[in-house]
Amino acid sequence: MTPAMTPARRLMVLKPSAMIGLFLVAGWLLVAALAxxxxxxxxxxxxxxxxxPGTHAPGGGIFWLGTDLLxxxxxSRVIYGARPVVGLSVLATSTAYxxxxxxxxxxxxxxxxxxxxxxxxxxxxxxxxxxxxxIVVIVALGASYANVVLAVTFGxxxxxxxxxxxxxxxxAGRDYVAASQAQGERAHRILIQDILPNAAPPLxxxxxxxxxxxxxxxxxxxxxxxxxxxxxxxxxxxxxxxRAMALAFPHLVIFPCLAISSLVVGLSLLADGLNAEGRRG
Amino acid sequence: xxxxxxxxxxxxxxxxLTMLVVSFLVFLTLEFNVEGVAVKVLGQFSTPDQRxxxxxENGYLDPFAIRYLRWLLDFVRGHWGTxxxxxxxxxxxxxxxxxxxxxxxxxxxxxxxxMSLILGVAAGAKEGSALDRSISLVSxxxxxxxxxxxxxxxxxxxxxxxxxxxxxxxxAAGLSLRELILPVSVLALASTGYIxxxxxxxxxxxxxxxxxxxxxxxxxxxxxxxxxxxxRNALITPVxxxxxxIPWILSGVIVVEVFFAYRGFGTLLYQASLNADVYLxxxxxxxxxxxxxxxxTIADLIYVRLxxxxxxxxxxxS
Lengths: 281, 318
Fold this sequence. Notes:
The complex is a heterodimer. By secondary structure, chain A is mostly helical. In chain A, 72% of the residues lie in helices and 1% in strands. The model of chain A has no long low-confidence stretch (mean pLDDT 82). In chain B, 76% of the residues lie in helices and 0% in strands. Chain B has helices spanning 2-30, 34-42, 48-57, 64-76, 90-125, 130-144, 147-161, 177-207, 210-217, 222-234, 236-244, 246-260, 265-274, 278-306. The two termini of chain B are 23 Å apart. The relative contact order of chain B is 0.13.
């Protein structure tokens, strides 16, 4: 394989399952971006309560996926629900990366006390089952967009820290880093120019996977009623609201579950493809 | 022997230090919401004066350091306080719930371990085969579906569609195996794929080793190569991974218990969090962290025991 592979070319040689993943992810990104144009109804307006999928709406149009207890169109809520899940999982994963990568680079490069303290903190956070950690943070700070991002950042940063630290430890000992040091390059330039690019390929795969984990977490928090405050359409929250009546009206919960599952499966398939590609190249 | 004891002492010391830091951080975090405790206990329509009076009466307004040290001393002596929501002694509340969750998680592991090891070994024994690719694909899909969605899908089929199983697992009439089937399946499905993939990777790596090629050249049958030569070395990683999965399983237990209304540790923590029962949340967090840290220590010990290169006087097998 030629070393000069552009990202676009890399995507074109993905295996079929990864192409399906890419298709699913791109699809949900589009849905999130174009929600106001795609949704047939307003996601917050009450129309006919508990209509079955395919029912005609009183003012024209069809409830393709039915309506919920308050008469809101489920298809429109699933479409609008893509926004917080996609937006927050990307945002939260990015902030987690910012924290994890900076701390990991610092620990791997400076070693000594910096490394010891950061590593201990990471192991403390990692000794929580993630959901317990999120619950503690949300109980203390309340449920809001910002606190969901904070909780996910807090929970994911240590694992990213460990990956980056290991890579930085390995690369910091190489000759070209010693050469840069001998030339009097400043530490932050060495970290960004010499060490970070080498960490990029494994991190790209991890980033994809981790957006999926974040989406699962945001969904689970929504399901537990600890996510976004109502009436924001959010997939986990829709399942929580519909669960009591799911035996009689399964359409209340099935569709948001299909939505979140297809998004995360897409991200995982894509990550798996990028990983296989990375190993081959 | 002395080395082992020193190692054990070091591990226990690390464990105690972690627990101490965790307890402090959780205590500090929950400090943000002390006002919320009074709101939950006295109700939405209580006056600020009533709330302040209740807080001061119950020691919530004492200086932080004093409250933390008092809590810590009590906690170490087994006085975990009283739940403001359940009005019961926290330790007495937690123990039976932990038992119930252990049954659930134990059931999950009992299904997950043999299934994932068999699938992983089958996939890794012939890397790149159709069987390998299908097992990998199914593993990726099952691990990517959130527990609450798996629970919805399984319920749609087995509760609503076929009517074979009950949709809730309240265990109202005592322990019922029928009510355990769905929650255990959801837990097992969420982790089986991950462990299977780890087993597959480990197996594939071992199968590429020179000593396996040697055995093949000597004419050993595929079954003999896998069972007699590859399996032991291939299982070191998965066994460790299973122990490291325990924090994930604990997170899954919370969602699964809430979904099926199972009265375990997860629903207890969930109710505690909804009702700002801060001391109960703190106690539950401590128990979960203890479970995780102990399971990780066991993972380390198993790893050393299974890999002879890592133990003193080892190296005979490799």
